[in-house]
Amino acid sequence: xxxxxxxxxxxxxxxxxxxxxxxxxxxxxxxxxxxxxxxxxxxxxxxxxxxxxxxxxxxxxxxxxxxxxxxxxxxxxxxxxxxxxxxxxxxxxxxxxxxxxxxxxx
Amino acid sequence: xxxxxxxxxxxxxxxxxxxxxxxxxxxxxxxxxxxxxxxxxxxxxxxxxxxxxxxxxxxxxxxxxxxxxxxxxxxxxxxxxxxxxxxxxxxxxxxxxxxxxxxxxxxxxxxxxxxxxxxxxxxxxxxxxxxxxxxxxxxxxxxxxxxxxxxxxxxxxxxxxxxxxxxxxxxxxxxxxxxxxxxxxxxxxxxx
Lengths: 106, 192
What we know:
The structure holds 2 protein chains of 2 kinds. By secondary structure, chain A is mainly alpha-helical. Chain A folds into 2 domains: 2-63, no CATH class; 75-106.
C-alpha cells in the first residue's frame, strides 16, 4: 500500500515536471548537419522496370493483353475519351489525398 | 502517428536514403529525446541539444541496423543512452562544472519553475544509472523490459535501480514537504 502511494507520488511529481520541448528549429539544424549519403532513389526505378517487364511478359504469354485489347475495342469511343479526360482529375485528387491525409474535397 | 508510421519512415530512410522521412522521425521524437537529455544533464539546454543532435545523426547513419525487434523509440533511446555515457566518460562534465554556476544559470537564463529546480536537485541525489532508469520509467513511461533493452542490462538490475532511486527520491520529496501535499491531495480525491 505504502509502495503504491510513494510510486503514485513519484509519478505525479514527474508528470508535473514533464514538459513538451518546442522544436524551435532543432530539426532544421539537424537536417543541415546530416551527412550526405548516396541517392538510392534509382532502386525504385529498377524495381518498377523489373515489375513492368514481368507484367508485360506474363500478359503476352497468357494472352491477357490480347484479351484486354478485344474488350477495349468493344467500348464506344466516347466512353473511352470520357475516361481519358477524367484521368487528370482523378490523379489530382489522389495526389492531394496522398500528400495530406486531412484534405477534404468539400 | 503510430509505430506503423515509424516502420514506414525507417524503411524509406534505410532503402532510399529519404531525408524527408528522417525529418518526420526527428520531428516526432525530438521532444522526448531532448527532454531525456535535459533531465540527465540537470537542465543544460545547449549540451542536451548537442547530445540529441549526435543521437539523431548516429540513428541516421546506422538506421539499417534497426531490425524492428523493439520499437523505434526504444532503439533511439538506446543510442541516446550510449551517446550520453560516451559523453560523460569522455568529458566528465559533471566533475568539471561548478554546481553553483549551474544553479545560477538555471535561475537566470532558463527561468525554471520551482518544480523544475526540485526535480534537478532530486535527480542529483541519484547515481547516473538510477537517474537514467528512474527518468525512463517515470518521465518517459517506458516499461521495465524496454529500460533493460535501452540500458542493456538484466531486468532485475533495472528494477533495483528504480527501487533504489524511488527510495532516495521519496526521502528527499518527503523532506521537502512534497509527500504531505501529495497525501493531502490523494486523501481529498478519495473522499470526494
